[in-house]
């Protein structure tokens, strides 16, 4: 009897907490289906006004495409660099490997704000601020250290015997990497992709500074600029927020396991 | 340590540093950072408690787990925008206060310096909850259950078991969530502040990372901006070293 009561108490506490965590989603949904006048007057009626305004007066489709282009290119660069580096650090050890690895871990700990000014100056000198490239290079540079760390720890867990056996079978290192290592590393690759996607999709600062051309702005940057411009049309802002949130939410729900793996990778055993 | 006019740099020596250390705004910014750190223990304790509840595996706990984790998918930009509405004069916070009979306390947290920082702190705690719950759940799923049974047989209460048996096993995870939360408090709040307050009112919610952005990109003073970035780096490196020695000495 006592445990049943306990469970009931726990269940109700968790339900209350769930309401607290879900409130923003409710607010976004509820507000986006009202017109600005309805929102201000606090009426409960329903309208598609704001969604109409979102797509007709704001470059939302364009920004969605930008987000996809920037995410895709940066993640591709991160994957190529981190899988090669991870394999090298784990399986092709040489004298400097530990030092190199510490250097990469060190790069993970440098806060973005400490390097953003020199990076900004350099990238502007290469005239890359007005194309996608400035931001893509930044995202790739920021994401690669952690991705390399994940890939290295994954390849470290791969037995050396597999590599040795493949050499006996006549494969060179290029072949081993392509035919053996990469297929086996798919779970680690998935973790890298998902974590980087969320990071880049949701980022404001890098996009704000490195995508100087408003036509190149990603969705999050577009929203950030809108809200900082003190737009008073909150329902439209909320509709835009919902559009930006949905892809990330889907990725989260589908790949929850990979995210937790990546998140707790730093704890070690 | 150089003066930057957009085209060329001139060596000015350490004067930028000395000027900045005399600047009262710089100290206010550092104080803001220190005050935000006060939210770190709360951002760890609440998730620990929730993870503890989840770990009791009551009906529907997997659904609750996903729900709690969901806000982590939201961009700080979106969180900030909703949070502004929540704390606004005609926002939900005031309606809630009114409905429990505290209508007299009509809050407008974002309108004055200290309370705006409080609003940012509360939003920060809310956003960290999902991540920290996941860290603690991972920790709790690795717990040695036989120890709990043994303690129960010895007549220990639930609270005693938690303190003497569970907590020591979670030490590594508490440290990890501490590090993540402190790093976020120092270097993850740019978007939130940008959207919620723009650093104001005054410099009430300007943290060091936001000050870097303001100095360099709003005022165009790249020299001071770089210097502030370097100070931020030194603070983070110091915290990292402190954390390392703490872990080492215990092992």
Quick take:
The complex is a heterodimer of chains A (269) and B (251). Chain A has 269 residues and is mainly α. Helices cover 79% and strands 0% of the residues of chain A.
Plain-language structure description:
The complex is a heterodimer of chains A (269) and B (251). Chain A has one domain (77-266): MetI-like fold, CATH 1.10.3720.10. Chain A has 14 helices and no strands. Chain A has helices at 2-32, 36-41, 49-57, 60-91, 97-109, 112-125, 133-156, 160-168, 173-184, 186-202, 205-210, 219-228, 234-254, 256-263. Chain A is globular and about 75 Å long. Chain B has a domain at 37-170: MetI-like (MetI-like fold, Orthogonal Bundle), CATH 1.10.3720. Chain B is built from twelve helices and two strands. Chain B has helices at 15-22, 24-37, 39-54, 61-69, 76-87, 92-99, 113-141, 145-153, 158-187, 190-196, 208-218, 222-250; strands at 2-4, 9-11. In chain B, a hairpin with a 4-residue loop joins strand 1 (2-4) and strand 2. The longest helix of chain B is centred in the last third of the chain and has 30 residues, at 158-187. In chain B, 39% of the residues are buried. The mean pLDDT of chain B is 81. The interface between A and B is large, with 58 and 65 residues.
Helix content, binned percent of chain B: over 70%
> What is the helix/strand order of chain A?
HHHHHHHHHHHHHH
The parts of chain B where pLDDT drops under 50 for at least 5 residues are none
- N-to-C CA distance of chain B: 41 Å
The third-level CATH topology of chain A is: MetI-like fold
Task: Domain count of chain A, please report it.
Answer: 1
Question: Which fold does the CATH topology of the domain at 37-170 in chain B refer to?
Answer: MetI-like fold
> First CA to last CA of chain A: what distance?
40 Å
| Average pLDDT reading of chain A | 85
Roughly what fraction of the amino acids of chain B lie in strands? under 5%
| CATH architecture name of chain A | Orthogonal Bundle
> CATH H level of chain A: which superfamily?
MetI-like
The shape of chain A, in one word, is: globular
| Uncertain regions spanning at least 5 consecutive residues of chain A | none
What is the highest CATH level, the class of chain A? Answer: Mainly Alpha
DSSP summary, beta strand count of chain A: 0
Total count of helical runs of at least 4 residues of chain B:
12
The assembly state of the depicted protein chains is heterodimer
């Amino acid at each position: 009897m006592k445990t049943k009561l306990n469970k009931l108490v726990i269940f109700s506490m968790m339900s209350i907490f769930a309401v607290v965590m879900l409130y923003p989603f409710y607010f976004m949904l509820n507000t986006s289906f009202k017109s600005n006048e309805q929102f201000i007057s606090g009426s409960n009626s329903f309208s598609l006004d704001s969604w109409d305004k979102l797509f007709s007066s704001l470059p939302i489709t364009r920004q969605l495409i930008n987000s996809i282009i920037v995410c895709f290119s940066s993640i591709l660069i991160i994957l190529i660099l981190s899988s090669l580096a991870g394999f090298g650090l784990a399986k092709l050890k040489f004298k400097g490997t530990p030092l190199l690895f510490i250097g990469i871990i060190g790069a993970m700990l440098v806060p973005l704000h400490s390097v953003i000014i020199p990076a900004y100056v350099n990238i502007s000198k290469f005239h890359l601020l007005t194309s996608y490239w400035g931001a893509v290079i930044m995202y790739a540079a920021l994401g690669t250290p952690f991705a390399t760390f994940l890939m290295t720890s994954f390849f470290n867990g791969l037995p050396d015997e597999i590599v040795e056996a493949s050499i006996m079978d006549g494969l060179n290192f290029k072949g081993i990497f392509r035919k053996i290592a990469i297929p086996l590393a798919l779970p680690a690759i998935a973790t890298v992709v998902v974590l980087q996607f969320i990071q880049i999709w949701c980022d404001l600062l890098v996009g704000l500074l490195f995508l100087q051309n408003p036509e190149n702005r990603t969705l999050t940057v577009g929203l950030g600029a809108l809200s900082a411009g003190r737009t008073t049309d909150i329902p439209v802002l909320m509709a835009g927020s919902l559009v930006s949130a949905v892809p990330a939410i889907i990725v989260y729900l589908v790949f929850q396991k990979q995210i937790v793996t990546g998140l707790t990778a730093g704890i070690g055993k | 340590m150089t003066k930057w006019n957009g085209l060329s740099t001139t060596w000015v020596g350490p004067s930028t540093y000395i000027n900045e250390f005399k600047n009262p705004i710089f100290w206010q910014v550092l104080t803001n950072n220190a005050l935000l750190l006060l939210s770190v223990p709360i951002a760890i304790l609440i998730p620990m408690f929730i993870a503890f509840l989840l770990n009791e595996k009551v009906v529907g706990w997997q659904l609750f787990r996903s729900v709690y984790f969901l806000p982590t998918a939201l961009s700080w930009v979106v969180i900030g925008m909703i949070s502004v509405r929540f704390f606004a004069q005609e926002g939900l916070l005031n309606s809630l206060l009114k409905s429990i009979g505290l209508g007299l306390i009509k809050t407008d947290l974002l309108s004055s310096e200290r309370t705006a920082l409080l609003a940012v702190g509360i939003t920060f705690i809310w956003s960290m909850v999902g991540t920290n719950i996941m860290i603690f759940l991972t920790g709790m799923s690795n717990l040695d259950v036989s120890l709990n049974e043994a303690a129960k047989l010895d007549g220990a209460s639930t609270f005693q078991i938690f303190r003497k048996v569970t907590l020591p096993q979670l030490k590594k995870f508490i440290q990890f969530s501490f590090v993540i939360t402190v790093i976020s408090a120092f270097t993850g709040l740019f978007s939130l502040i940008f959207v919620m307050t723009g650093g104001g009112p005054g410099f009430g919610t300007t943290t060091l990372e936001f000050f870097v952005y303001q100095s360099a990109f709003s005022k165009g003073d790249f020299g001071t901006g770089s210097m502030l970035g370097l100070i931020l780096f030194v603070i983070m490196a110091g915290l990292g070293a402190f954390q390392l020695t703490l872990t080492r000495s215990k092992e």
